[in-house]
Design goal:
Order of helices and strands: HHHEHEHEHEHEHEE
CATH architecture: 3-Layer(aba) Sandwich
Shape: globular
Distance between the termini: 41 Å
Oligomer: single chain
CATH class: Alpha Beta
Helix content: 40-55%
Structural class: alpha/beta
Strand order of the largest sheet: 3-2-1-4-5-7-6
């Protein structure tokens, strides 16, 4: 059954990420597309703005960790949960050069292929690309939390069912508990459309679920076994949708 579900997910995301006559602008807001407010020029500009915003947020965050005392003792892996279109992940070559190891996990073979093309074009090695859904990768040992310093999940949680969201967030909470050799606290970063910022009278989603802070925090703290620090460190508007960059760590 797990294999059947994996195959169905892979086919769904392969189709979702591939441009076609029926899907001319992958991952563009469905309500904007239906209203005829998405064209090639605006779509490209919106994706570029998202790429630049993500770079401006994530590069200082991660370089700050790499410059911390003891960083070289490890762990130094950044685990990416979902490549998608890679719009928010152009910072990967920069952090590899700073000494991070990087692993990308995505259930879509289309996403993994485009990720590998991106890496090859930029001459980036030392990046693992895993074609798998996240839970399967945890269960089969493709991802080892002890080796991970940072999880980054961009526009990932909002595409999970409530049960899948709870499983992932509880796992992230358990991950934050694990001590590190270098004494640095493990972190989770989300790029997420929070319910608080996207009221239903303003934004109509197709399959996305804009989970609220409370809906994210409850399973996180269950996994962590207590309070966690969850901060909005930046916001970005993609068309009319509001996305937040969340930094999550264990409470001191």
């Amino acid at each position: 059954m797990a294999g059947v579900l994996h195959n169905a997910l892979e086919v769904y995301w392969d189709n979702t990420l591939t441009p076609s006559r029926e899907n001319e602008f992958p991952l563009a807001p469905h309500d904007e597309v239906m209203a005829g407010r998405v064209d090639a020029v605006r779509y490209k500009r919106q994706n570029r703005r998202l790429a630049l915003k993500s770079w401006k947020v994530m590069v200082p965050e991660l370089l700050g960790l790499s410059e911390s005392a003891g960083f070289s003792e490890g762990p130094s892996r950044v685990q990416i949960c979902g490549w998608g279109l890679g719009r928010d992940l152009e910072w990967i070559p920069k952090i590899v050069n700073a000494g991070f190891q990087v692993s990308v996990c995505d259930v879509s073979s289309v996403a993994c292929t485009t990720c590998q093309i991106f890496l090859d074009r930029r001459g980036v090695g030392n990046v693992q690309v895993i074609t798998s859904d996240l839970e399967q990768a945890w269960n089969n040992g493709s991802i080892h939390d002890e080796q991970v310093l940072v999880y980054y999940a961009g526009q990932f949680v909002q595409n999970q069912s409530e049960e899948e969201k709870d499983t992932a967030m509880e796992h992230f909470g358990s991950f934050l508990r694990i001590p590190t050799q270098n004494g640095l606290g493990r972190r989770v970063y989300l790029l997420h459309a929070r319910g608080e910022d996207n009221p239903p009278d303003k934004v109509r989603w197709r399959n996305t679920i804009p989970y609220s802070d409370l809906e994210l925090r409850a399973p996180l703290e269950k996994g962590f076994g207590g309070p966690v620090l969850m901060e909005v460190i930046a916001r970005h508007r993609y068309y009319h949708q509001c996305y937040s960059f969340l930094r999550i760590g264990g409470a001191p």
